[in-house]
Amino acid sequence: MSESTNGYAIQMLGVTKTFPGIIANDNVTLEVKENEVHAILGENGAGKSTLMSVLFGSYAPDGGKILIHGREVKISNPNVATSLGIGMVHQHFKLVHNYTVTENIVLGREPKKGLVLSLGEAEKKVAALSDKYGLQVDPKAKIEDITVGQQQRVEILKTLYSDSDIIILDEPSAVLTPQEIDELLDIIRLLQKEGKTIVIITHKLNEIKAVANRCTILRRGKSVGCIDITPETSEQELATLMVGRPVKFDVDKKPFNPGRKILEIKDISVNNALGVEKVHDFSLDIHAGEIVGIAGVDGNGQTELLYALSGLSPITKGQILLNGEDISRKSIRQRVELGLGHIPEDRHKHGMVGGLTIAENTVLKDFYTNKYTGKFGVLKNDEIYKNSDALIEQFDVRSGQGSVTPAGSLSGGNQQKVIIAREISLSPDALLVAQPTRGLDVGAIEYIRKRIIAEREKGKAILLVSFELDEIMSLCDRIAAISKGSIVGIFGEGEKTASEIGLMMAGVKSSAKGAGRPGSAAASDSGTDR
Q: Which of 30, 319, 370, 389 has its CB 3.0 to 4.6 Å from that of 266, i.e. a possible disulfide?
């Protein structure tokens, strides 16, 4: 670890960064002590990632100064940051999927013997670092063959391979399962024990409580304070500091009163892109006025299930009915027109087009209708922007230029709000919801959960997939535990504890009988719901 002259590893003093129409960082001060875990907390769009991108040299600040270990520096690009011992693990990993772990780690500084690439020593160093920090990554494995959690560990290894003593983690747990999050927190503790200084951006208040020593709060681009994290610091206190008002963590909803069947999934099986069966004989009914949650460890068929239901992938057997009509072979557009909505897990791949404006993204599914398209196929731009302006206000989308803002320039949380606004505004009878609050701040989570509950109380049928077990347990009327592509138990709200659900997620079937009927939701051994 570098010697500091003033006790601080990082000082960002009066940093300002502007983009067209928005001040992302407004005279922000951040001071991180040597060898501490320092959290940065703020709403979506508060300027957290921008501030760290300035520190890492991805953006040039418009004002202010930066000191590293007490010495003022100019960080003009990431290579300069790396030379100063700063490493960054980005929220969206920067890995080449058909390269090995080691090839990704040494990319741009490949070891050679003469003119020949020599990875042997690099693989040994990667293996040693992996072993030292408990990262458990095979140096020879291809990125495309390892889990998301392991990919994140590769990103951490990249910083360690570069001998970084300051490591920035941007939303590190946003794509991880609960088990992987626990492992990540252990890794952070070990990195700190080894003398590293860690800066962590996260919306998850329990993670801040678990590992952070101090926390700086940003609100709408400004720093509003820095507090010590002690056993007495409450999540409610942190949430209030972040959003500037009290936040309600509990979900209010009316008593469970299901109506008719809206979505019927009958014995479907689904293969992945490689032809491997990922969903096997899956059956589930979802009724009007009901939220059914799918609880499972990532990789147990949830993604393939939603692809099949939404029309992104074909089923190999079985049947899908929407309002009694067979949609098993219908196109995505036909399913939308029949009343199916989809908030996808991957907002960049399936939820939006980053190069289009907010306005254009809000009408991606119905731009061709009479509402937005006139004679000769000419778009009614006034109507499109009127719709977009209303959704931006209703869903509190933070954007620099309003409806004309490119969607790709929004923070991740505000991109999610755009997608949710579009899907809910279409008023589908059945709504497929995947990871709706991933990467969102507590204020946005509170709002989006209220909107999901509001759709339930309008009589919509909602299928919710989330790796946040507390989200599943608080929002859902019934929960289906899934393991290896099959249901291993179905039960009603409050019938199982988190640990019991966890056992079923691990493949232990429930012994209860009588599953599959709303209001009588004990899990069946057959794992079906008909």
A: 319
